[in-house]
Design a protein that fits this description.
333 residues; alpha/beta; Rossmann fold; 7-stranded parallel β-sheet; 3-stranded antiparallel β-sheet; 38% helix; binds ligand FO1
Length: 333
């Protein structure tokens, strides 16, 4: 991120922590990285999608954030690299190997380098920081934990590991419950906790990721939920549901399978007690009044980089507008 890419206007020096999952979250993370100075943004990423595949440790949400912030991502696909080639997949297919989870030739280098470093004893945090630097990304990109956490989806087709549900079954099975194996014993990383403990922290932003699949893995880690509930700065969530539907992915489908209204209000209710403000799309502004917490309506559909920057600015401004009330309501310690 060149300094020219940073429009620091209106951030008044505070640092921000963004919680991010897959594609939708990465879009806002990119907007924030364009608006905030690099040393004022820490992006904390879900690792519940991680899995072992062909002997490689694959961290899809981390890679989506890395590639997006490096300007290398395949934007329309949402994951993987632009201009990717698939020679490895073709060669593997010829040998009868599994090709349901597609690993591009350049993408493969990420999984091999990460797996090698993890085998040498590096933490996922250290590996991710190495990859971030090599890809020329300025803000900190931090796994939510260095401990193993794996999302499993219980469906009418059985209990599926996340990638089997999401990729192999293309989210078709009906979901009855979601669990995060390992979360109860997992710990936030020291780097993530210190980002939350910074004296200049001015806000926490939950990016428009799927709450049930991409944010709940973090909230299922006891000391994560505790750390978030004890924050003395405004915590704002951005809706992934616009006009009753999700832009991408299974969020709306899972909500209806859980018997929830597919609405921004259901998202706000999901985060109740953990957020001080909720950003919804301007098309849903009418819902602002009955959310039971401060809400701001803004354009939340992000097609262009400018859309991402505009939403990032609006989210930061919303955090700052809450800072007075938040400190008063929490009292001064
Ligand atoms: N998503 C797919 O729908 N099909 C794939 O073949 C696929 C491969 C893949 C490889 C590396 C990677 O980092 C992500 C990949 N994804 C693929 C996306 C992955 O399923 C993510 O977990 C989702 O983006 C949800 O976060």
């Amino acid at each position: 991120m060149t300094s020219a890419g940073i429009h620091a206007a209106g951030t008044a020096g505070g640092s921000y922590v963004a919680l991010c999952g897959g594609v939708g979250g990465a879009k806002l993370a990119l907007g924030l990285a364009n608006v905030l100075p690099a040393d004022k943004l820490s992006i904390i990423v879900n690792t519940g999608d991680d899995f072992e595949h062909l002997g490689l440790h694959v961290s899809p949400d981390i890679d989506t954030v890395l590639y997006t912030l490096a300007g290398l991502s395949n934007a329309e696909q949402g994951w993987g690299l632009a201009g990717e080639t698939w020679n490895f997949m073709g060669a593997l297919e010829r040998l009868g190997g599994p090709t349901w989870f597609r690993l591009g030739d350049q993408d493969l280098a990420t999984h091999i380098e990460r797996t090698e470093r993890l085998k040498r004893g590096d933490t996922l945090t250290a590996v991710t920081d190495h990859l971030r630097r090599k890809l020329g990304i300025a803000p900190a990109i931090l796994p939510m934990t260095d401990d193993p956490v794996a999302t499993f989806v219980t469906t009418d087709a059985g209990r599926l590991p996340f990638q089997s549900y999401f990729v192999a079954q293309q989210c078709r099975p009906r979901v009855t419950s979601i669990e995060f194996q390992g979360a109860a014993a997992a710990k936030p990383t020291p780097a993530a906790l210190s980002a939350l403990a910074r004296p200049d922290l001015a806000g926490l932003i939950i990016c428009p990721s799927n709450p049930w699949l991409s944010v709940d893995p973090m909230l299922a880690i006891p000391s994560w939920r505790k750390a978030l509930s004890e924050l003395h700065v405004p915590r704002v969530a951005v809706t992934p549901i616009i006009g009753g539907r999700a832009i991408k992915g299974p969020t709306a489908k899972i909500m209806s399978e859980f018997g929830l209204d597919v609405s921004a209000a259901s998202i706000a209710a999901h985060y109740r007690g953990l957020i001080d403000g909720f950003m919804l799309d301007e098309s849903d502004a009418a819902q602002s009044a009955d959310l039971g917490l401060p809400a701001m309506a803004a354009p939340t559909i992000m097609r262009t980089l400018d859309d991402r920057i505009r939403l990032a600015r609006a989210t930061i401004a919303f955090c700052r507008s809450l800072s007075g009330s938040r400190l008063v309501s929490k009292g001064t310690t």
